[in-house]
Amino acid sequence: MCILIFSCLLSLLDTTQLGGLIGSLSTSGKSFFSVDWHDKILISIQVPRNRYWGLHPPPAPLENVIDDGLTAIQRAVFLKKAGVETAVDDDFHLNPPSRADLLESAIQNMIRYLQACRDNDLTPSLREGVDTLLMYLYRALNRVDDMERLASCENSCVVEELETLLNDSGHLRTLAFLYAGKGMSAKALGIWCILARNYSQSSYYKEQSEETESTTENEDSTTDLQVASRKVIFGRETAAIEASRILEESSDQELVLQHLGWIADINQTLAVQVLISEKRINQLSPDEVIAAIDLKKVEILQRYLQWLIEEQYSDDTRFHTTYALLLAKSALETYEMELTTQNSVAGALKNEMYVSEFGASSIFETPVRERFQIFLESSDLYDAEDVLDLIEESELWLEKLGHETLVLQILALKLEDCEAAE
């Protein structure tokens, strides 16, 4: 199919266009094809068009050219065996090329030619043809890295001509890069979401198990399973990273909130970056964002509220009060976890910090109690009575140790209760 498109592409160009395209290359056409293009162009000018195509037949599908060449080789071999001198040398006679080898070699040379064409100043229509055909040829040789590199850089590929091919062949990453480059964000995000879900541990474990059994029955498969697990994590993380890059620049609030959930399930830090990104033209509605965040993702909600208050200078008392209450609840939960597990202070700090699947840095690097105290002291816009009602009966505050004593004093002062503060 890709070769037929190449033939059609050449047949659509008149001789002057074809000559101009090839003549514009910094490298002579002879380095790619054994044709003197300048002589061919000269002939086309001097000979009427109907006679020109009689002397030089129109392009044919490459498979047909190779089949004709193989037939000629077989005929030459037969004649040589019969004692007739032919142009085929002995080495070629003893090791004749296969059809697959010739086809691959031809496609590789066409790729080299088209890659050289991309460096020249082409018209928009020619650039579309070159890039689209180049993607077809990469696909024909299954050069996945080249496909993704072309799709993710600036290109003139016609997506409508490629999406069926790439979708049917399973090259969804390449298709996602193409969609993103052409501004089709919804389609690109849909693919990254599908890929993230498809990176399931069970499928990788199954593949690794089958490979292990085929290699040796007694071999320990622990290492293989660890490698498979890393592949799963890497694949899901990559999908989330690529999706977050698109969403960080998107002002489409519905689209952002639609994909926020699965990104947060993979990496909460990426989800926060999507919400607080300064790259988008229009910021998201805080009320809509807060309503969309999963209540179980407390760290994301805390970080978003912190951003609204400290970096966007929001004076909305609802946000200040909600943030204070969330910090208070987290501090209480951390303390209860300490009592239950009897962990050390270092262990407690680790429990309250979110760590990604790669062991990356947490959303918050300071302990929640310290953040709670700092916020209560710095803000005057939260409802101190609501916060005090939440914490005053807990065992943590009854002990009144360290930060807890300061917190109670701050709340009392906010409520203008001097006796309670003392």
UniProtKB/TrEMBL annotation:
InterPro entries noted in UniProt: Vam6/VPS39/TRAP1 (IPR032914), VPS39/TGF_beta_rcpt-assoc_1 (IPR019452)
Keywords: Signal
Signal peptide range in chain numbering: 1-18
Native source species: Abeliophyllum distichum
Entry superkingdom: Eukaryota
Domain Vacuolar sorting protein 39/Transforming growth factor beta receptor-associated: 130-209
Pfam families attached to this UniProt entry: Vps39_1
UniProt protein name: Vacuolar sorting protein 39
